[in-house]
Specification:
Protein name: IucC family-domain-containing protein
Number of domains: 3
Number of strands: 29
GO molecular function, one term: acid-amino acid ligase activity
CATH architecture of the largest domain: Orthogonal Bundle
Distance between the termini: 28 Å
Organism: Parasitella parasitica
Number of helices: 18
InterPro entries: Aerobactin_biosyn_IucA/IucC_N, IucA/IucC-like_C, LucA/IucC-like
Pfam families: FhuF, IucA_IucC
Amino acid sequence: MPVASIDFDRNEHYASFATTSRLVACLTSESLVPVYFIPASVETENFVGLCLLLRPVKDQEEKKVHQVTLDSILAVIPLRGLPILNTDATVNWNGIVCTHISLVDNLDMQPHIYSVVAGTGDKRNSSNDHAKQTLTSILSPSATLNEFHLQDSYDAVHMWHRFASDFEVNGKLQEQIGQELGSSINFQKYTYDHPKQLPGFESSTIAWEQSVVEGHATHPMHKARKSYPPMNALHPGSYDLEHPKIRLVGLPRQSAVLRGDYEELAQPLVDALFKAGGNVEQMRSEFADYVFIAIHELQLPNIEQKFPVAHIFPAQYSIYVEALASLRSVARPDILPGLSIKLCLGIKISSALRTVTPFTTYFGPGFSKIVPKLTYDRTVLYVERELGTISYRHEDSDVAKHCSSVVREAIEYSPEYKDELFIPCGALVEKIQRPDTDETLVTRVWSLDTNEKRVAFLESYVDLALRAFLPPCLENGVAFEAHGQNTLARFNRKTGELKGFVIRDFGGVKVHNETLRKSTGKELDVLPDSCVEAHTLDEVFKLLYHTLFHCQFQRLIRVLDLHYNGVGWAIVRNKMHQLIPKDHVMWPMFMGHEKVPGKCLVRMKIDELYRDYIYRPVPNMILFKPQQIPLA
């Protein structure tokens, strides 16, 4: 449904919708509130019914709701496509059969999220009449259309505070999460307000990295950039996050923990920073007992406060770099060909502060030595190793994580691969730099204008992705964090043909040590309490399902318009049948259960978790088949 331009700032409206729809998706999938599908009471184009969120009753979340009152409603969202329904859980309200919703996606929704307000409201806009009539159909017979109106643009901040009060989230945490949601809306609007030139086959990988419009498809803090003291407040436009400066910092050698070939690999970057500042020989002589680290300019207040022995060189010892999709990883191909640098950035971007923990800096170089032993097709998957790391020597990892760095392979910036195009998979499914469209970069750039073209593209994509990521999981007990930001699709630059994938970032992998040892003869080398070690194979499966199937395949299938008809998921199932033996221990995990563990992004925020995960059962999308609206 279009947004009326006379009543709305388009970008502000869609920015609110982008964040709020993701909050709705999480509240639904995590069973934090009762959510029901109300079938449309009127026939209207692109309207199948309503997604009705009811306010939570914390101790009765599983109990059936017998009657809906206006006060019990948290939000009302008109739907253009069917969400994932649990047909075993229905209620009958005023003679209308309403079905429990297990999963709802923002692409299921029209771009309107309503709150219920007493009174008749503004008569000028009748665009929600069909939604109001449908809602009225399930209310008690005494309810009338004049008792209430549906107010558009219900935003995530207000919805969160109403939910959090009902759910008894403590006040300080409630306010903090509300601020992060507000940051997400504000930065989303800024992105809409400043569209970029659309990338194509001839564009650089960096142009594709920086083409992200909305980011994570289900995380309600998908665009949050929330800084904390001693850093300055970060507002949209206050700093160019895509082209940041890095500054030179020296650490006394005894204060640094080095792993791998850090100094050798970082040397060209350190040289460039010294050269920018001048007095190179004098400075090197004066700091002969120091090791050097590049620090994101925004991170300097944390360095100054937490590490008094660190020497922050004057401002002229700096250079500009190009930020990748994660914002904290950067590249300068002219200085570090074939490499990228992961930096600390003490800003909450989506779920957590984007620092680099000692667990990560310790694990990466050691695991990189195991990578050649893993079972995977080298023609389909390239694993970018983490070749050198540095971190500050401190007994408190929450302090040390603010001063560390990772040097990793980045073949996308190597001259050897100049005839290939590497694109973050998440960028493929991004909108074409505007909010009010369903067209994405993958459909535009690859001219996927027919069903046959879309099916062929998906078949190739799913085949190569599963051939890339299933073997390490099945054979070695290794799940890479294969979501759209960490995974690069590798294309022939001239033809657009998909050749394979690249995986980067070892901070979120899961490895079952016993399976790794049996298959490779190698064991994990991790610090105590590292979260990468999986104690069961189920942990490995959960990570791969969430990142590859839920975050990556589901988004691609939806934007290719192959979800509701079931064609996309049938393609996935067929490939899974080919690649997983039925007697394999992981067959039932992927293919045998209607429900799988779903990662709970909001519950984790409420419990203030990042390195530990919370899961709740969600529908296994691999088994999805087309649905029908339940009849009375």
